[in-house]
Specification:
Layout lengths: L6 E3 L7 H9 L20 E3 L2 H4 L14 H29 L8 H23 L3 H24 L1
Antiparallel strand pairs: 1-2
Helix pairs in contact: 3-4, 3-5
């Protein structure tokens, strides 16, 4: 029984993949220690190599897997209380920028009715955006703009 590693695709590898292929051929060994050359596809598709050689060519991690505890806490802080505060400010500011309508109450009722949708949209955006800094900037900008709009209205 031969010992082999995992498969690496040549199309996913950098330009020096040919040297990696040459090294990998000598790594497959029989249980008695005799070297057995690996066989590559004719088109250079896949070949076998040892786990040690394969560890140098790892696939990139997904955004959810990167970072650590700090990134998870920062995302949780943004998706939880900061999204709630931003949704509240958008709801309160909506009374100023939503048209009043025929009965003169649309600007009050519509933001209140849409508050759960605003909050859930901000929550999902904070959870799903790949760049955490961009999510902080967008949600923060929405909160600041509506907060300034409210403060200017209250000062007058």
């Amino acid at each position: 029984m031969r010992r082999t590693g995992r498969i690496i695709r040549m199309s996913d590898q950098p330009a020096h993949a040919e040297s990696v292929r040459a090294e990998a051929r000598s790594f497959t060994r029989e249980p008695n220690g005799a070297a057995v050359p690996d066989l590559a596809d004719q088109d250079g598709g896949a070949f076998f190599c040892t786990q040690q050689n394969a560890m140098t060519h790892r696939q990139p991690k997904l955004p959810a897997q990167q970072g650590g505890r700090l990134r998870a806490w920062m995302r949780g802080l943004l998706a939880g209380p900061l999204a709630l505060v931003a949704a509240c400010l958008i709801m309160a500011g909506g009374a100023l920028w939503v048209p009043p309508g025929a009965a003169q109450i649309n600007n009050l009722v519509l933001p209140i009715v849409l508050f759960p949708l605003l909050w859930s949209a901000l929550f999902l955006y904070a959870c799903l955006d790949r760049k955490l800094g961009r999510a902080y900037a967008i949600i923060g900008a929405l909160a600041v703009v509506n907060g300034l709009l409210l403060s200017l209205h209250l000062i007058r």
